[in-house]
Amino acid sequence: MQLQSIQSELQGNTYPGRGIIIGRTQDGTKAFTAYFIMGRSVNSRNRVFVTDGDGIRTQAFDPSKMSDPSLIIYAPVRVLGDTTIVTNGDQTDTIYEGLAAGKTFEQSLRCREFEPDAPNYTPRISGILNNSGGKYSYAMSILKSDNGDPSDCLRYTFTYENPKTGEARFIHTYSGDGNPLPSFEGEPTLLELPQGDIDSLTELVWTSLNEDNKVSLFVRTIDIATGLTETRIVNKNQ
């Protein structure tokens, strides 16, 4: 798979929807993850990320404009011990509860499917980062309809047991804009994670997203040796 730049990959798609990037920094010392949301409707754009314990949740920027909280108000990021969970929906809670009960990432998601938002049937994308004893690994999942047919849920899990330095994987909900919105296809895109601190990486992702459609961005680094984290949140609504 050819290595892509974050800038070209994001700028080449005006509406990837919601996206998860997970990888390892250039110096090899930190795990990296980013999660962003985009929106086309007033309801979808009327959101911000706010901190919630070790994670984050979505919140209405203007509660008077919130017409339907289902599918857009949830906790995208939660932390369970050495595991950070990042998803595009309330399956964050499903994974958290499954892992706490001794299930695997994949087993935890067996009870979930794509979102019930016909005709898009938005995929549920999820990721977990595990940092334990100086060993870092991560996995990604996508649950999607069978080419727009809701009678079947296609389930794909991608596991990265020894992430390479300076590389990341990118999975998102839509392959592009449209009506209905076309679902993501293939395995997560291989991205170059350039050298820089969390602030420069946050700026790179945020400025590469389509100006009209971007809503919020979460970025976190996790020191692999110590477990210490740094987090940045950017909201278009201020």
Overview of this protein structure:
With 238 residues, this protein is mainly beta. The chain has one domain (4-235): Inosine monophosphate cyclohydrolase-like (Glutamine Phosphoribosylpyrophosphate, subunit 1, domain 1), CATH 3.60.20.20. 15% of the residues lie in helices and 41% in strands. It has five helices and 14 strands. The protein has a seven-stranded mixed β-sheet. The protein has a five-stranded antiparallel β-sheet with strand order 6-7-8-9-10, covered by helices on one side. Strands 4-5 form a two-stranded antiparallel sheet. A hairpin with a 5-residue loop joins strand 2 (19-24) and strand 3 (30-38).
Layout of strands and helices, then pairs:
Blueprint: E1 4-5, H1 6-11, E2 19-24, E3 30-38, H2 42-45, E4 47-52, E5 55-60, E6 77-80, E7 83-87, H3 91-100, H4 105-108, E8 124-132, E9 135-146, E10 149-160, E11 167-172, E12 189-192, H5 198-208, E13 214-223, E14 229-235
Parallel strand pairs: 1-12
Antiparallel strand pairs: 2-3, 2-11, 3-13, 4-5, 6-7, 7-8, 8-9, 9-10, 11-12, 13-14
Largest sheet: 7 strands, mixed
Q: Give the H and E element order.
A: EHEEHEEEEHHEEEEEHEE
> How many β-strand runs?
14
Number of domain units: 1
* Low-pLDDT ranges: none
Roughly how many Å is the radius of gyration? Answer: 17 Å
CATH level-4 homologous superfamily: Inosine monophosphate cyclohydrolase-like
Helix coverage percent of residues?
A: 10-25%
Given the C-alpha coordinates, what overall shape results? globular
Question: Helical stretch count?
Answer: 5
Q: Which topology does CATH recognise?
A: Glutamine Phosphoribosylpyrophosphate, subunit 1, domain 1
Main sheet: strand order: 1-12-11-2-3-13-14
Distance separating the two termini: 39 Å
Beta-strand fraction estimate: 35-45%
Quickly name the level 1 CATH class.
Alpha Beta
